[in-house]
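Per reviewer request, we include the raw input and output of the structure prediction for the construct analysed in the revised manuscript.
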Amino acid sequence: MPDLRAFGLTDMVAVSAALRRAGAGAQSMEEAAQAVVHHLYDGLREPEGDRQCVLARFYRTVPLEALDDDLRRLAEEGSGGDGLTPATRCLTLLATAGDEPAWNDRRRSTGHRVTPLASEEIIASFPMVAQLIRQFGLATSDLLETRPDLAMTLDEKTYNVFYVPNAVGSPHIPAQGEFVLAYGVQSVLGFGGMLPTGDLFAIVLFSRAPVPIDTAELFAPLALSVKVAVLPFTGGRIFRPTGTPPPHAVAPVRSGGQTSAIEQLLEVHERTAAEQASRLEEAHRLEHRRSHQLQALAAASVVIGSTLSMDEILSHVTEQARSIVGAHMAVVSLTADQGWAQSINTVSLSDRYAEYRDYDAQPDGSGIYALVCETNRPVRLTQEELLAHPRWRGFSAEAHRHPPLRGWLAVPLIARNGDNLGLLQLSDAVEGAFTAADEAILVQLAHLASVSVENARAYAREHDVAAVLQESLLPQELPRIDGIEVAARYLPGTAGVDVGGDWYDVLSVSATEVALVIGDVVGHDIQAATTMARLRHAMQAFASEDPSPASVFGRLNRFVARPDDDTFATAIYLLLDTATGAMRAVNAGHPPPLLVEGGQATYLPTVTSPPIGLAGCGPFAETELTLPAEATLLLYTDGLVERRGEGLDMGLERLRRLGEAPWANTAGLLDHL
């Protein structure tokens, strides 16, 4: 069914052929016109099947003397009786089809049955008619004069469209409230031309679907097809007989033989154009699809390459493979051993296969899956080819639980050294069978996936090493300090990022003094972990000699600061006298400590110095504070308060409110946080 939103060359050819034959069997021009509007009203539809036209109408100018008494009376009333002659052309509603019953009988129309074109002033008073005439490329004088030479010239040249893309609010479309808005008219499209008699004919469509300009341009040639349909009646009967029509002498028209020859020529042209249009549109469709696939592939590559999480990589690959190529099922299987057993890692199913989403049986590697992995070559099969393939094993007892494979396209995942990593497979193409172009796109996506899988595995190996390293570097247990209760927790702040430069320490530096330290080296890798180890051990050594905060951080900064090294760390160091509660603090660019006392939480006002590791920084400023009895002091790293897309102030406020919640002891507070 033709769709006005996506009306193409093939649609134009098909509609042209149908309109050209609309006059077959008709006894009058009215009957032929009625067939034209009904074909358009009934045939233009949404993909879901709903009609797109609210109303379709066929108009033709008719000399006043050719009108019946009722129409002649309406014409005279419309002009006020001034300036009318027997030859005055009147734009007459010849046929109509629409949503309302009254719109399917021209005689029941109110106010639009006939419009006398007696003068330029009268024409201008009907804005839609005036605009239609202008867009058809006519002058109003062309309809006011009755010269045979002008009629012949216009007959051969005038085939145009009347186009109002936005009907709502248009000054050219009347009845805005009771018609345009009430019936949801979006666009108005008309097409037509001139008959050999010098009379204008026009078909006007009022569409509830927006009509693009490309569609409007394709309707201009349809006027010729309509002309062929009504041409036999140009010199004969205009209206369906309801009595005795008045005599109406007209100029001679083409003979039946000439009309037949025109029809035959049009048939040949239509058939040839249809074939060429079909090939052209298919090529255009494939090119558009290919362009869309390449754009989607580029977007997918950014997402796939931006994560080191294996689950995220494989999940995105399956979703994008199914979406980009167009399939109802996509699966990524990673090779589990040298026997080609597969581990089904991710599955993406359309709603068509929703009932199978809990299927979790693993392939044993003995069938067609293994063929792809053994050869490291793509396999593309229709459903018939798949069922007949010697390596196809089916699903045996699992057949009732596994989605059926309606055609199959599988490509290998290949490591940089040529080893097989697994395969990416699709089944049940949304449109027909999988093509060579689909295979090429899937091979590219599989290449991207293979690189990311290897990177994720390499990261996981490095991560495991770094995790062991960092675990060995952090305090295995905290010292027992008289007068204070100490607890600590270390948890990853982001999934997949639990290795880096965070550290903490509790150092007993004298009988009554304890140093509380927490820091964060920039980065989340082995380098950050090793830098953290250097800082922690150096700080312990410096604190054993002189535990004052400014001295420790000053020496620590000189130890790590190098002009050619961009390593730096934020940290906070508090020297607490457990007997008096007196504290001295140095804050090197770190989030402030949170003090909780009597159910109230506030941040301690410390002087913030530059981070450790910046060459040329001056002395670190100390802040003198007091830790009240029974109060709790919370030191933390930024991972506790930072969230993507959220300001730091919001995170700090959230932590402050959490600190005011009831808890039994310091360990309970940490568990709560």
